[in-house]
Design brief:
single chain, alpha+beta, BirA Bifunctional Protein, domain 2, 9-stranded mixed beta sheet, 3-stranded mixed beta sheet, 11 helices
């Protein structure tokens, strides 16, 4: 795997390799002492995908530009020849960041996948012109009467085929340098994300199950014994710095998801937390905090700095 070019991951369970119970509980602490983790929660209801995507890219570029100034070979040399200078330089390194957000309706597609489509514009037309039968942006049992919006459609740098983001769905992006964490590689990182989403969903009383060899979180409904997808994982990697992350269906309008084939999973329907539970005690921001705290524990419990911001406050 070259570290000079973007790497896009759409991993299946068989390629991750299943770890023992002891390994599943492993912690991969940050090597940087007293490291801070910045958690940006976008408080807009609902945010513009392009603005947040550009924000994510700007955080990634901080890492990439830092490595241009301090190449890895130079850092490794300083670590041996001048420890004090090495420590001083490391203090200037960008901090790991997390963005949690609810988006306006948008379908996204991995660029590798779209290269296999003969006419991308024609292919995306049904998605761009889709109007959900319920005529509302979120599940009707929430009592909301917002006018529906036509979805956007964008090609992005992540693994997978077609995915959907929209109101009522929690999306969490992780911009972290895997090299900053002890013994952490991409497979272990994806397992951390998947395991902690599973633990959260289980804590809400849902029956979490595996589905074939797919990465993601799936639940089994007791009333019909059928399996549904409730959470997706899609990661992009550059110089071992991650972008993108996870989405969890909390209270979204499932028509956007179940009218089309999502993530290449034919005939598999998606569900949401409210669709299974009927009531939810926490709002999106609280759920985001809970999941970020759980994942942060596996990364050695960094000091979380929580910032609730409006998308217009983002300085690129």
């Amino acid at each position: 795997m070259s570290l000079k070019s973007p790497c896009i991951f759409s991993l299946r369970r068989q390629s991750i390799s299943l770890y023992s119970t002891k390994q599943q509980a492993a912690i991969f602490p940050c090597k940087i002492e007293n490291q801070e983790l910045i958690h940006y929660h976008i408080k807009n209801k609902y945010a513009d995908y392009t603005k947040i995507s550009n924000f994510q890219t700007s955080l990634l570029n901080q890492y990439l530009n830092w490595y241009k100034k301090y190449p890895i070979f130079k850092l490794n040399e300083l670590k041996v020849t001048n420890v004090e200078e090495f420590k001083s330089i490391m203090k200037t390194k960008p901090k790991p960041s997390i963005i949690s957000v609810e988006f306006n309706p948008i379908f996204t597609a991995g660029k590798k996948f779209m290269k296999t489509i003969q006419n991308p514009d024609e292919y995306s037309k049904p998605y761009r012109e889709f109007v959900p039968p319920s005529k509302t942006m979120v599940d009707k049992n929430l009592g909301e009467t917002l006018d529906c919006k036509l979805p956007e459609f964008q090609f992005i740098n992540r693994g997978g085929k077609i995915t959907y983001h929209g109101p009522g769905q929690l999306v969490i992006y992780f911009i972290i340098d895997l090299k900053d964490f002890s013994n952490l590689d991409i497979r272990k990182y994806i397992q951390i994300l998947e395991r902690n989403i599973k633990e959260y969903v289980k804590s809400e009383g849902l029956d979490v199950v595996n589905y074939q060899d797919e990465v993601g979180v799936f639940v089994k409904r007791k009333s019909n014994n059928c399996t549904y997808k409730i959470s997706s994982i899609g990661i992009n990697l550059q110089k071992l710095v991650t972008t993108h992350g996870i989405s969890i269906n909390i209270q979204n309008n499932l028509d956007y998801l179940n009218t089309f084939e999502m993530c290449g999973l034919e005939n598999l329907q998606q569900t949401s937390l409210i669709n299974e539970k009927k009531t939810i005690n926490d709002d999106i921001s609280t759920i985001a905090k809970k999941i970020v705290t759980k994942i942060n524990h596996d990364l050695g419990d960094m000091n979380i700095i929580y910032k609730s911001i409006n998308e217009d406050e983002i300085n690129l």
